[in-house]
Amino acid sequence: MSKNLVHVKYCILGYGYASLIAYHKLLKKQKHENVLILQNKKEEFFITVEYQDILFSPLPIFPVKESELYNSDLFANVPKQDPITVSFSEFANFNYNAFEMKKGSLADFMVKAQGIDKNLCLGAKQWGEEMFSLPFSQVQSKIKRHYVEPKGNTRIGYLNGQSLFKYAIEELSPKVQEYSSIQRINVLEKKIHLQDTVISYDNLISTIPLNYLFQLCGLDSNTNSAFTGCHFYFFTYESGLEENNMIYDCDYISKIIRIFSIRDDFLMVQLNGKAYNKVAISEIKDRIEVLAPSIRGIEYARDLYLPMCYPLELISDPDTLERMTYLQNNNVLPFGRFGNWEYSDLHELDWSSLDSIGV
Ligand SMILES: Cc1cc2nc3c(=O)[nH]c(=O)nc-3n(C[C@H](O)[C@H](O)[C@H](O)COP(=O)(O)OP(=O)(O)OC[C@H]3O[C@@H](n4cnc5c(N)ncnc54)[C@H](O)[C@@H]3O)c2cc1C
């Protein structure tokens, strides 16, 4: 059976914030019909989630007030909101001497940069005890950028339960084609082979995880694609915690990393993905009541497990770098947190790299 052939100037592979913002930037020089987003039917779209009549952004994603992205026309029609408020519970039950620390590990870096403090305890809860032996170089880089040499990191809060990034992209109506699987990508012919369609493109921007892109392009690689996930729990409550409060839990015994009040009556709890299904809801609820003592009428709503949230090691091996250059020389741009395999926020992505493929 012959396949449909579709030609498009710009194809964006993957459907998340990086794709949608790239689409917005492409529209400055391209017509809407020149850009096609390909979305995998099997991957859920987590920009908003619904619980009863509450539509909310499940990931705590905040634009940074000082950033070029937040000050660009992407946010021109987005309502203003105040920054989030950040606080920390008491630093407790963290016995630093119980760990054997290797030179060059993430823990070694953190002790040298920040000392033995609540950050180290939070780090061990977030990244696991492996941070005492492994470098987790992506995390080191992020800490350097955000906390050791900060360039302004004021995080703007949610509005009506949703990230301002959601408001920024909601007016866009890109052309989106769903697919169930990609058979292969022929980089030299510039063609993506789907089950019943072949997409021929001039330029491809890929936000799917870099190692999957390599596989689809027939490039083997030894890229260190270690990553870690998160388990989120959501609770409704009657009163006692205003929206946009982030509270970090610095007690090492508690499994909670942080809680964030998405609205005045709905909050998120973040746990390490490795705690998936290992912590009782009653334990989480009791701890929330300690972290936010004024809270009243708290009820469990739902959870969300995301296995891939943070890439852990920087890409430095020559083979991977060579393959990335090969792709770029053939008009394929790996892009975004997973496409580029970097622990970055949206305002840190190199948006000018879109120019390199002729935008
Ligand atoms: C807890 C947490 C807090 C964060 N806080 C912030 C913040 O404050 N500010 C900020 O800017 N950023 C923040 N981020 C990062 C933010 O989530 C990312 O920058 C943003 O979601 C990246 O968008 P993206 O489009 O690159 O990735 P995604 O939205 O993940 O899109 C990647 C695409 O790849 C597809 N895909 C995944 N796996 C496969 C597969 N196997 N095969 C094919 N396709 C696949 C997905 O379906 C998706 O379409 C945070 C992230 C987390 C986890």
Give start-end ranges of low-pLDDT stretches.
none
Please state the average pLDDT score: 94
Please trace the helix and strand order, writing H or E for each element: EHEEEEHHHHEEEEHEEEEHEHEH
Count of strand segments: 15
* Beginning-to-end CA distance, first to last residue: 35 Å
Q: CATH topology of the largest domain, anyone? A: Polyamine Oxidase, Chain A, domain 2
From the alpha carbons, calculate the radius of gyration and give it in angstroms. Answer: 21 Å
Quaternary structure annotation: single chain
**Sheet with most strands:** 7 strands, mixed
Strand content: 25-35%
CATH class of the largest domain, anyone?
A: Alpha Beta
> What is the helix tally?
9
Structural class computed from helices and strand pairing:
alpha/beta
Keywords for this entry:
single chain; 359 residues; alpha/beta; FAD/NAD(P)-binding domain; Polyamine Oxidase, Chain A, domain 2; 2 domains; seven-stranded mixed beta sheet; six-stranded mixed beta sheet; 9 helices; 23% helix; globular; binds flavin-adenine dinucleotide
Structure in words:
By secondary structure, the chain is α/β, with parallel strands linked by helices. It contains nine helices and 15 strands. The chain has two domains: 151 residues, 3-Layer(bba) Sandwich (FAD/NAD(P)-binding domain), CATH 3.50.50; 155 residues, Polyamine Oxidase, Chain A, domain 2 (Alpha-Beta Complex), CATH 3.90.660. Helix 2 packs antiparallel against helix 3 and helix 2 packs parallel to helix 4. It is globular. The structure holds flavin-adenine dinucleotide. The site of flavin-adenine dinucleotide has 25 residues, from helix 1 and helix 9.
